[in-house]
Prior knowledge:
Layout (H helix, E strand, L loop, with lengths): L1 E7 L5 E12 L3 H17 L2 H4 L3 E15 L5 H10 L16 E7 L8 H12 L5 E15 L21
Antiparallel strand pairs: 1-2, 2-3, 3-5, 4-5
Amino acid sequence: MAWAGHILDSRGSTLYHYTYFAGSQALSAFRNQRLLDAVNAALQSAPASASVGARLTALNAKYLHVVCSHRALQPHAEEQLRQLLQYGEVAPSRQPMPGATQIELFVAPRVGTISPWSSKASDIAHNCDLASVVRIERAVAYQFECENLTGDNGNHKDKATLVQHCGK
């Protein structure tokens, strides 16, 4: 699946066009379970006012590819990029549990940073005659399901816990 957007300059002209491609599973089943257990342990050790029995019931991490280009991608270029960016295990789709709060967090390189993955992926795109591509970057989308959330919608001082991101 791909979706797109663009950035405008002060005169309203498009500077860059962004196309987003959903990617593969970012964590193995073992690492996924280890992260789920670690976050739940952190929630249980958080101050009582912060967690009040909050618990993660599910965790999923998948890659998200961001393609920056000079103009909107043509259909053949979009298909070529889709094929280049399909690798690894397909991210599973699951239905959320009734009553659980869903949270999605995105982790990407800081603005202005070009990761080694990005450099290599951009070079590959240029070698495949995708000249309009300026840069390709990879982020991770973490999807959580939480139970028993209470509190002040994330205004906690302990920034090390997930609770700050959990709201109603």
